[in-house]
Amino acid sequence: MMIVNDQNQRTRRLAILCIVCFVLQLAIAPFIAIGAGHVNFCLICAFTAAFMGGGVAPIWVAFISGIFFDLTSTTPVGLMALLLVLAAFLLNPGDRDRLVDEPVRCLRDGAIMVLGVELVYQLMLLLVAPGAPFIDMVFLRWLPASLLDWLCLVPFVLVLSRTKSDVLTLGGGAKKSFPGKRYKL
Amino acid sequence: MAANSSLSGLGKNDDGRLRTFIILVVVSLVLFTLSCRPETKGAFDFVKGISQTATAPVRYIGTLVTLPFQGLGNVVGNLTAPEATLSELQDQNEQLIAENALLREQALAAERLEALLELKNTHELTSVGARVISGSVDSATSSITIDKGSIDGIEVGMPVTDSLGLVGQISEVTPTTSIVRLITDERSGVSAMVQESRAQGQAEGAADGSLRLSLVSGDQKVEIGDLVVTSGLGGVFPKGLPLGVVTSVNRGDGDLYQTIIMRPVALTAPFEEVLVVTELSDGQHASKEDAEAAERQDIDASQNIQGIPEEGEGGEGQEDGESS
């Protein structure tokens, strides 16, 4: 299997990912909620980009996603950007494409990191602007928001892990999708 | 050799990643610190205003596209509602139809009386109409975005109502849009009173979408089903706007204050019209009697705590309770 390292293709995919997530964040996110927890498509954008790897680009995507979230919400600027940059760096310490190599682990690590990012975010906001009882924050904001984030992350990871292997491999994409088929033919 | 070159390449990439990571972490921290400081917050509000204005069309389109699907939650809820709830709703419906007929008669009578007295409306609100174009985009606050901004004379702090009652208060303004912090946000607080007993307190939001009426002393009479309205104390919200209906009252033994939970009466569905109150007339402020009653109530509460009277302490506390 020959893997083509197409930097332009990667940049294009990251740009499309950002546009899709930003539009979803503005148009759809206000209407997807459990309790008082809303889905955060900027977080999903940053996580997916981090899983895709590719040098410094995912970290920049995480930063831009965080700033976009901060600017379009009512919270202080820089907090989500900080958390997403940290998360993006931790989710893919190397430079490999985790979406192709280990999509299931991506989902597991994504779940843990979603819980961490949302918890720190809510705690920091409690410190900056006290008001909400801690229990309400946990059960009506943190856990529902984390669940929604993870549920919306799943299709992104699954779709991109499949399309990635089809687009960036020459001759190996179909065989990877259906292992063993060549032996039956 | 190939492995060596690939390893060295990886090292360079790692260095670059680490450097970018550190720089962006520092930049984010600086931005966060500056945006929390009152001295520099204005600049960030300006940038936020630009971004809110620029992204308003996307929010508007999103609301338009998702409008047909927004009733799905209610459909599921109705399908899974227990039989007892449905029969209870039917009873309520019959009762409301009867009340509605009575109210129609009273409304017609009131219209005639109003014509005689040359009254134009009950509240005489000086207001600007606006449309809700989006809900909260984050999990930290309960807010809505409306399609009117500073160009239309909207300012931070103005009260917002819909046809049923108080919705919230303007918290951020851009030239073409404004963000309304809902009364159900945990950081909201509105001076309120129970319409029947005139017991005064402060309505505070909760994350579950309900309202809490605090600072109502244990000897005040509050019943389930009582309507709670704005008291007008503090001069921010007009007096008499409906806030919520009492759903639960808890008077614990030895408790100084009652635990009162309300269901908000105002609804804020997308594309719903709201009114931003731009000016309060003299008649919409709390009367002197109301202010004195609130002060007396707090003095009584202080006496219950300390056993000594503390004049002039309580009333101010409630007035300061208006959200800002």
Describe the structure.
Chain A is mainly alpha-helical. Chain A is 73% helix and 4% strand. Chain A is built from nine helices and four strands, in the order βαββααααααβαα. Chain A has helices at 7-27, 41-52, 57-72, 79-91, 98-101, 103-128, 134-167, 173-177, 181-184, and strands spanning 2-3, 33-34, 37-38, 169-170. In chain A, the strands form two sheets. Chain A has a two-stranded antiparallel sheet. The radius of gyration of chain A is 18 Å and the shape is globular. In chain B, the strands form two sheets. Chain B has a six-stranded antiparallel barrel. The longest helix of chain B is centred in the first third of the chain and has 35 residues, at 2-36. Chain B has helices at residues 2-36, 38-66, 72-79, 83-117, 288-306, 314-319, and strands at residues 126-134, 143-146, 159-161, 166-173, 178-182, 189-194, 200-205, 211-214, 227-230, 242-250, 259-264, 273-279. Among the domains of chain B are: 72-117; 189-265 and 287-319, Rod shape-determining protein MreC, domain 2 (Thrombin, subunit H), CATH 2.40.10.350. The interface between A and B is large, with 56 and 55 residues.
Give the beta-strand count of chain B: 12
Named CATH architecture of chain A: Orthogonal Bundle
**Largest sheet: spatial strand order of chain A:** 1-4
Low-confidence stretches of chain B: 1-10, 115-120, 308-324
CA-based gyration radius of chain B: 25 Å
Percentage of residues in strands of chain A: under 5%
Number of strands of chain A: 4
Q: Write down the CATH class of the domain at 189-265 and 287-319 in chain B.
A: Mainly Beta
The third-level CATH topology of the domain at 189-265 and 287-319 in chain B is Thrombin, subunit H
Largest sheet data of chain B: 6 strands, antiparallel, barrel
Strands in their spatial order, largest beta sheet of chain B = 1-2-5-4-3-12
CA-CA gap between termini of chain A:
19 Å
Tally of structural domains of chain A: 1
Note the total helix count of chain A: 9
* SS-based class of chain A: mainly alpha
